[in-house]
């Protein structure tokens, strides 16, 4: 009987990923991240969210702006497609700090 090495192609593997190393200088995503982090004043959003004493934590406006602008630059306009990209695309993961966003339907008031 033949002796083959085992096939591990269907086995999950946990790989440590340094998200900061995924955004390379000179790329659009690096420039976008730098501009949003260092040159935009997003403190106006702090006045809107008064959930420090109760309620669920909100996503950072910095993270949301990075994701939305990068998604639109890639032609992703569907919130469901953006959600999927944040789960499987390493660049979206790096920009969002691996925040697991969820599509929320405002019309039906439930997760889809």
From TrEMBL:
Record Pfam families: DUF772 (PF05598)
Matching InterPro entries: Transposase_InsH_N
UniProtKB keywords: Membrane, Transmembrane, Transmembrane helix
Transmembrane segments: 56-72
Domain of life: Bacteria
Start and end residues of each Transposase InsH N-terminal domain: 20-97
Full protein name: Transposase
